[in-house]
């Protein structure tokens, strides 16, 4: 019967175990007695293996431990915070309050290879406090203690003064595991952009070379942040950097930036445009083998050629000439757009016959662009501009050194498509969220964003503290709200012609420990406490204060669903359930009311693809559980317990 009932995992994936499993599948001969035979692996790699006595790379104290911190699974989850959210039922944006190391682990299940762009502005190593827990041995426990969610021992701040012997190592130990986890989230053609100053720029470059691969380094951009400079020693510092890395440089195609003052070569009744071939130019990385949904025929009206030789195009077979993406080096090319997008944007496509007689499909590009340069400067990009923007939103100074919106907006414009997902796990004042919403309002895009911010306490005597903000996360959430309203008001006329409303909302979540009781006791625990813990485990698998929405959020995350699933309460045969999507998933999470077999039969008759039932809801009735499993099997429904 166990094969007919799926059990929700209690933790995030174990990355060490999964890596070993991948090795076993690729090279089964390196697995001996359930373990990886490292010597056998070296033997198979032969000339490809480096001489271990002379290795090239960046090494520092604590690196191995930092790697383990990324690999270790967590029981943590995210609790929905309805009160601090905006447009919960419709938004696709997310704000998460919590330690980003744990949050990145939680995001691995659903968001693996789904995020097109990651931008982060991590704490610069200035010798001041790291506002991140300094002990990752226990992961979530340290965070909960730091935020006083466990006890009143106080917050842990790790001061990283430059007089310490491991000044650079401490910063690298903070960054390394986060970058390892972040890479997993990028799409195949995704990019990461990281702001940094000269203190750690060289070390960050080496770490990124290791994590993302030296061949996937795209560029380093210098940004002028203070035109008059600020004197440090013999020179006045006026710049910072951001590094750009691709998940796979071969698969990545970054966008050019708009420029003013140039003219278009072509025009139609919708305005001027230039042409860009719709075929993906990188057939080696994108072809019919790995992107079969992007290879389909176009139909061209060869009799409709205008003075420039441009012909009408359709995805539907209403014209006679059929055009396929050409074959390159034996590989069938694919289009950059999917079939539905091409159908919806048909007026933005045109065909033209080349000098070789081959008809090609083109996109009408209605903006003049050029490749972005590696030095950025302008009054909209200096640091003071970011401060002025936040001060104007809040009416007072609530955040130090925020990045300017235009700076992040340019990065997002270069690194994303109109429907991309953007992640910032060092959110700060949430400039990235502001930039995404503003860019969407300007170019009609529907990009989504995920913000992650530690609840760093603000000084009660500061302007932010006087305004009632307790943490930087509180400031960031309010920034998302205020900037969304400002963007909506500023672009009201353009927003009226959008095919879908501009999303200025966000679902708010907070990092917490699991809602389900877990075995976790030290070997020296008092016997009376151990006995009570065993009784608690027997009596309930879910925490007493676990609300249905909290339980469902954790279950969905651990089963691989997103943070923006549509969830609604439904009643079936007297049982209160939660429906996910259009009822594709039904969940019964009330451990206090045992359902009858007739009630469960009625739930099964709703024909969901998946049914989730809290283990405690059966109240020890194995026969009821078995009968439900048989009912689900007869209907082809996946039964999951938690």
TrEMBL record:
<dbReference type="Pfam" id="PF01555">
    <property type="entry name" value="N6_N4_Mtase"/>
</dbReference>
<protein>
    <submittedName>
        <fullName>Adenine-specific DNA-methyltransferase</fullName>
    </submittedName>
</protein>
<feature type="domain" description="DNA methylase N-4/N-6">
    <location>
        <begin position="115"/>
        <end position="440"/>
    </location>
</feature>
<keyword id="KW-0949">S-adenosyl-L-methionine</keyword>
<dbReference type="InterPro" id="IPR002295">
    <property type="entry name" value="N4/N6-MTase_EcoPI_Mod-like"/>
</dbReference>
<dbReference type="InterPro" id="IPR002941">
    <property type="entry name" value="DNA_methylase_N4/N6"/>
</dbReference>
<keyword id="KW-0808">Transferase</keyword>
<comment type="similarity">
    <text>Belongs to the N(4)/N(6)-methyltransferase family.</text>
</comment>
<dbReference type="InterPro" id="IPR029063">
    <property type="entry name" value="SAM-dependent_MTases_sf"/>
</dbReference>
<keyword id="KW-0489">Methyltransferase</keyword>
<dbReference type="InterPro" id="IPR002052">
    <property type="entry name" value="DNA_methylase_N6_adenine_CS"/>
</dbReference>
């Amino acid at each position: 019967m166990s094969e007919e009932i799926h059990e929700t995992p209690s933790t995030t994936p174990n990355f060490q175990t999964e890596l070993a499993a991948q090795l076993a599948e690729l090279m089964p001969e390196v697995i001996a007695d359930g373990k990886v035979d490292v010597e056998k692996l070296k033997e198979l790699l032969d000339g490809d293996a480096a001489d271990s006595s002379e290795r090239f790379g960046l090494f520092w104290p604590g690196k191995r431990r930092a790697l383990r911190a990324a690999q270790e699974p967590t029981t943590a989850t995210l609790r929905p915070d309805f009160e601090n959210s905006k447009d919960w039922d419709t938004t696709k944006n997310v704000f998460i309050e919590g330690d980003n190391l744990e949050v990145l682990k939680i995001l691995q299940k659903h968001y693996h290879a789904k995020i097109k762009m990651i931008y982060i502005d991590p704490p610069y190593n200035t010798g001041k406090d790291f506002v991140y827990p300094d002990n990752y041995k226990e992961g979530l426990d340290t965070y909960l203690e730091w935020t006083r969610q466990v006890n009143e021992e106080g917050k842990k701040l790790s001061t990283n003064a430059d007089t310490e012997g491991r000044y650079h190592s401490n910063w690298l130990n903070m960054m390394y595991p986060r970058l390892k986890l972040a890479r997993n989230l990028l799409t195949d053609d995704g990019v990461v952009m990281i702001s940094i100053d000269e203190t750690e720029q060289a070390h960050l470059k080496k770490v990124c070379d290791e994590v993302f691969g030296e061949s996937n380094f795209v560029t380093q951009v210098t940004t002028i942040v203070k035109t008059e400079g600020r004197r440090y020693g013999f020179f006045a510092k006026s710049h910072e950097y951001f590094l750009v890395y691709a998940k796979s440089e071969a698969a990545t195609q970054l966008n050019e930036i708009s420029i003013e003052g140039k003219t278009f070569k072509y025009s139609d009744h919708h305005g001027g445009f230039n042409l860009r071939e719709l075929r993906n130019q990188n057939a080696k990385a994108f072809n019919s083998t790995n992107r079969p949904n992007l290879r389909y025929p176009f139909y061209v009206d060869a009799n409709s050629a205008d003075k420039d030789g441009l012909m009408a195009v359709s995805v539907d077979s209403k014209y006679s000439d059929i055009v396929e993406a050409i074959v390159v080096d034996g590989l069938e090319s694919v289009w950059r757009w999917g079939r539905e997008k091409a159908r919806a944007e048909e007026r933005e496509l045109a065909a033209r016959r080349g000098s070789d007689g081959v008809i090609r499909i083109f996109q009408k590009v209605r903006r003049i662009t050029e490749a972005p340069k590696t030095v950025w400067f302008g009054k909209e990009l200096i640091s003071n501009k970011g401060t002025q923007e936040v001060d104007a939103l809040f009416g007072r100074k609530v955040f130090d050194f925020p990045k300017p919106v235009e700076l992040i907006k340019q990065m997002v414009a270069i690194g994303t498509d109109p429907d991309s997902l953007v992640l910032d796990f060092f959110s700060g004042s949430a400039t990235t969220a502001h930039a995404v919403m503003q860019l969407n309002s300007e170019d009609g895009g529907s990009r989504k964003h995920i913000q992650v911010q530690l609840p760093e306490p603000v000084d009660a005597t500061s302007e932010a503290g006087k305004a009632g903000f307790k943490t930087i996360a509180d400031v960031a959430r309010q920034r998302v709200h205020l900037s969304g309203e400002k963007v909506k008001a500023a672009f009201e006329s353009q927003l009226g012609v959008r095919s879908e409303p501009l999303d200025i909302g966000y679902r708010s979540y907070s990092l917490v420990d699991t809602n389900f009781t877990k075995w976790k006791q030290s070997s020296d625990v008092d016997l009376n406490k151990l006995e009570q813990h065993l009784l608690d485990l027997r009596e309930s698998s879910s925490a007493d204060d676990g609300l249905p929405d909290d339980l469902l959020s954790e279950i969905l995350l651990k089963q691989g669903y997103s943070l923006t699933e549509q969830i609604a309460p439904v009643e079936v045969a007297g049982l209160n359930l939660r429906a996910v999507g259009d009822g594709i998933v039904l969940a019964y999470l009330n451990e206090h009311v045992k359902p009858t077999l007739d009630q469960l039969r009625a739930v099964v008759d709703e024909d969901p693809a998946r049914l989730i039932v809290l283990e405690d809801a059966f109240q020890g009735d194995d026969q009821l559980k078995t009968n439900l499993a048989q009912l689900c099997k007869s209907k082809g429904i996946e039964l999951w317990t938690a």
